[in-house]
Amino acid sequence: MSKRQRQAFGSVRRRLRLVGLLTTIALPPQAFALHDLTRAFFSVGLDQAAYLLPFLFVAANLPLVFVVAKRRMLRGPWGELALLPFSVAGIGSLLYLPLGLLFRLAQVAGLPLPWWLALVPFALILYGALIGQRWMQPSRVEVPIEGLPSVFSGFRLVQLSDLHLGGFVSEARLRRIARHAARLHGDAVVVTGDIVDRDAQHARRAGEILASIPAPLGVFACLGNHDHYAGAGRVAEDLRAAGVRLLVNQGVALERGGEKIWLCGIDDITFGGQDLRAALEGRPDGVPAVLLAHNPNFFPAAARAGVALTLSGHTHGGQFGIFWLHRALSLARLITRYVAGLYQIGESYLYVSRGAGLVMPMRLGARPEVTELVLVPAAEPVSSSEPIPAA
């Protein structure tokens, strides 16, 4: 078995384990929610709906049976449509758990809640599946860079991340994402990994669409873990052939008015191929560096090496979060302390994009994102040595 076949097989096996985990986690809450909804419907005279509910919940879980039986993941628009009922029933039931407990406490206290409140979690998930995952959010962030040449003040990097072409993201959808990026009129476009989902055959088309985004200094990218699952060699070759300047443990000087900044990228840390020393090799003394690193967990190492700004993705913002309360209230907090947005260690900054694509066809509270990062000279040195949210 070749290395690429082993990686592909490992990816499928991981996803099947994920499906099994989701099923194990989701079935008990579904039974709990089904019990409460059926009682609620009977209580208000909706007997036919109450009788129909068990059949709807069973049907919602059938796509998972197909995945396990065929050992194939559902993909594309049809896969997204097939998984919609499970998203609503399964994830909606998880959200319902605290509400169900609240219903019981209210009943004990003699303050019964209206029955229709039980439908709210399922309505939220339906919103996330139909609207939330498609509602692109353009973000603008100013980043103070120590030692930034004055001619680079106001320099704009447009960041895209986690496109996952070939999964639930189609070419038509990627073109729409590219149009969002083009409207920001960046000086350069950077793509921080996971350009394709699991199949390298999509890399050439992804590269062509990305390379079509107008940017005076070009379109640059690094690889993510999904690009490796698909086959990093072919993905890299096709992206470069399409006109994307791929930075894998290497860097390039961007020039303006005789001054320079250093733009570099590392390989994804999942496979241990990152080499920051190689990425910074050739950087002139005193020139600030901007690093493309798919996984934000590399940020402390980048900060120690004096990188001024690290751009990452990988987390998708958890695709589910309560960012209006605190960005740590996200599923992504289970895998990293760097969930989304701007972070700081000393004079070094990290920006984590929530990504424009998705790996599950739902986003709630973590909208897809295209980001305009504006570089500005640092007003004064920052003394913090711990990762803190940056203003």
What would the keywords be for this entry?
seven-stranded mixed β-sheet; 2 domains; 41% helix; Purple Acid Phosphatase, chain A, domain 2; single chain; 10 helices; six-stranded mixed β-sheet; 391 residues; alpha/beta
Can you put this structure into words, describing what you see?
By secondary structure, this protein is of the alpha/beta class. It has two domains: 3-132, no CATH class; 137-389, Purple Acid Phosphatase, chain A, domain 2. It is built from ten helices and 13 strands. It has helices at 3-43, 47-60, 62-70, 76-108, 120-132, 171-182, 203-211, 225-242, 276-280, 299-304; strands at residues 137-145, 155-160, 188-192, 219-222, 245-246, 250-256, 259-265, 289-292, 309-312, 341-345, 348-352, 369-377, 388-389. The strands form two sheets. The chain has a seven-stranded mixed β-sheet with strand order 6-7-8-9-11-10-13. Strand 6 and strand 7 form a beta hairpin. The protein is elongated. The chain starts with a helix and ends with a strand. The relative contact order is 0.13.
